[in-house]
Specification:
The complex is a heterodimer of chains A (179) and B (174). Chain A is of the alpha/beta class. Chain A has a single domain, classed as 3-Layer(aba) Sandwich (Rossmann fold). Chain A is 26% helix and 22% strand. Chain A is built from five helices and eleven strands; from the N terminus they run H-E-H-E-E-E-H-E-H-E-E-H-E-E-E-E. A five-stranded parallel β-sheet of chain A has the order 2-1-3-5-7, with helices on both faces. In chain A, strands 4-6 form a two-stranded antiparallel ribbon. Chain A is elongated. In chain A, 38% of the residues are buried. Chain B is of the alpha+beta class and 174 residues long. Chain B has one domain: 2-Layer Sandwich (Alpha-Beta Plaits). A three-stranded antiparallel β-sheet of chain B has the order 2-3-5. Chain B has a two-stranded antiparallel sheet with strand order 1-4. A two-stranded antiparallel ribbon of chain B has the order 6-7. In chain B, a hairpin with a 4-residue loop joins strand 2 and strand 3. Chain B is rod-shaped and about 95 Å long. The chains are: A alpha/beta (179), B alpha+beta (174). Chains A and B meet through helix 4, strand 7, helix 5, strand 8 and strand 9 of A and strand 5 and strand 8 of B.
Chain lengths: 179, 174
């Protein structure tokens, strides 16, 4: 009960730290667009802070690079304990188009544990707000894995060797192998 | 002068009114020509794997698990929604939807996996899209699972050995 009360009282505002570890600045601009008066997220209590030591949430953009991976890890370790990591954009979620380049380690989940993924290249500002709303528990996520299995209609196997005539002269199959 | 300037700024700000979009309360329409998540239509897909060859991020994987079943897997992780797969698809089985609210806490939620029946090439033993009417029926799912005798059914100049020419592969999916 105390936990619920605490969550209700203190779970309001998230202070976000904006970490770019080698992206193309597209996702950066979308994140900053979220903070502009058009998509004013400060009405939800979300505030951009300059240091990971003040932050609750780290917004990662860009893949983990060979040169910035360790810095990203240090920034993650500098954050105080209840912390969330958002991977924003295709690069942070899966490594980007240049995922197999020599300088790219891969998605940021190779360096820091990621809680929420917002794919897109870049994701729309609405998509980022939606991701934050999913994290806050305001809305349910919409995507689910799709698996399609084609239905098989087995045909019984007839072989000419199994043909014979019955008493009325009709051709029947003596042996019908059901597959 | 500066006071006048401030007053002018105030007037401009007052004239602008409220600009904040009511996004989470009511959905905004996406702009024209917006490309969201690609949706794969399994009933139209013929398994030509042109999308897999054209994907710049190599996010569409195609495996032949045996001589007759092809698995097409779309992992949405690093997809940039460029729409090349929808562009190249001959059957228009891939549509770029308007979905952008794809935020999730598990990256495997974005996976779309299609198991497709294919017809077997009677020469090399690999999956391909059959052109004959019987082969099209086979791709719809009417299968007899009798590969050695299929040479009597399907038009072919050559025929398969009873053992598979191409070994079944063990696929490792992350």
């Amino acid at each position: 009960m105390l936990k619920n009360l605490c969550q209700k009282m203190f779970g309001r505002s998230l202070w976000v730290y904006h970490a770019n570890s080698g992206g193309c600045n597209g996702c950066d601009i979308e994140v900053l667009n979220v903070l502009t008066p058009y998509y004013d997220v400060e009405r939800f209590g979300i505030k951009l802070v300059g240091s990971p030591r003040h932050a609750d949430v780290m917004l990662c953009q860009g893949p983990a690079m060979r040169s910035t991976g360790q810095a990203l890890k240090r920034a993650y370790e500098a954050m105080p304990a209840p912390k969330l990591v958002f991977a924003i954009g295709s690069c942070a979620c899966g490594g980007g188009v240049w995922f197999d380049s020599y300088s790219v380690l891969g998605p940021v989940e190779k360096v820091v544990p990621v809680n929420y993924y917002i794919p897109g290249c870049p994701p729309r500002p609405e998509a980022i707000i939606y991701g934050v709303a999913v994290a806050l528990g305001l809305v349910d996520k919409k995507v689910a894995p799709v698996e399609f299995k084609q239905i098989e209609f087995p045909i019984p196997n007839y072989h000419p060797g199994d043909l014979r005539r019955d008493d009325h002269g009709m051709v029947v199959y003596e042996k019908i192998k059901q597959v | 002068m500066s006071v006048l300037g401030k007053l002018e700024e105030t007037l401009i700000c007052l004239k602008a009114g409220r600009v904040t979009l009511p996004y989470p309360a009511e959905a905004q329409p996406v702009p024209e020509k917006f490309r969201g998540r690609p949706i794969f239509d399994a009933t139209k897909c013929v398994g030509c794997s042109g999308c897999a060859n054209n994907c710049p991020a190599r996010e569409i994987l195609v495996f032949d698990v045996c001589q007759e079943i092809r698995i097409l897997q779309y992992l949405g992780r690093r997809c940039t929604y460029c729409g090349r797969c929808a562009d190249v698809c001959p059957e228009k089985a891939i549509t770029m939807s308007l979905e952008f609210e794809n935020a999730t806490n598990k990256i495997s939620d974005l996976v779309q996996k299609l198991d497709l029946f294919m017809s077997t090439c009677q020469r090399c033993g690999r999956c391909f899209k059959g052109t004959a009417a019987l082969e099209e029926l086979k791709m719809k799912g009417y299968r007899s699972d009798d590969i050695p005798h299929e040479r009597w059914i399907y038009r072919a100049h050559s025929f398969l050995e009873s053992e598979p020419v191409v070994d079944d592969i063990q696929i490792e999916l992350d």
